[in-house]
């Protein structure tokens, strides 16, 4: 199932924040992304209604299995793409920005082949 890029970004942000060991709240997403509270509130409501996250009575957000799967896929792409863009000489700022764009549009096939190609290069060096 294809979801919107913005939803993928929110799920990825929730994953990154939760990986820091903190409980995630809407305000944490506001702080991390710089988006407005109303925007985050709408996004959280939509992600909850779509079955990607749960929100407890204290406002803490957890990824549900479907949301975690999407977030982990996008985050893996982001880390891989930014790392290897920087390795080929792209500035960190540009690599991070470009990786954030590419991670949403690259096909599974192309991403898998890139990973395979890099693995082969690293094994042969």
UniProtKB/TrEMBL annotation:
Protein name from the UniProt record: Iron-dependent repressor
Q: Which Pfam families match?
A: Fe_dep_repr_C (PF02742), Fe_dep_repress (PF01325)
Q: Provide this UniProt record's keywords sorted from A to Z.
A: DNA-binding, Transcription, Transcription regulation
- Give the family per the record: Belongs to the DtxR/MntR family.
Q: Which GO terms describe its molecular function?
A: DNA binding; DNA-binding transcription factor activity; protein dimerization activity; transition metal ion binding
Key word Transcription regulation present in the record?
yes
Record's InterPro entries?
DtxR_MntR_Metal-Reg, Fe_dep_repressor, Fe_dep_repressor_sf, HTH_DTXR, Iron_dep_repressor, WH-like_DNA-bd_sf, WH_DNA-bd_sf
Q: Which residues form the Iron dependent repressor metal binding and dimerisation domain?
A: 65-123
Annotated ranges, domain HTH dtxR-type: 3-55
Q: Does the keyword Aminoacyl-tRNA synthetase apply?
A: no
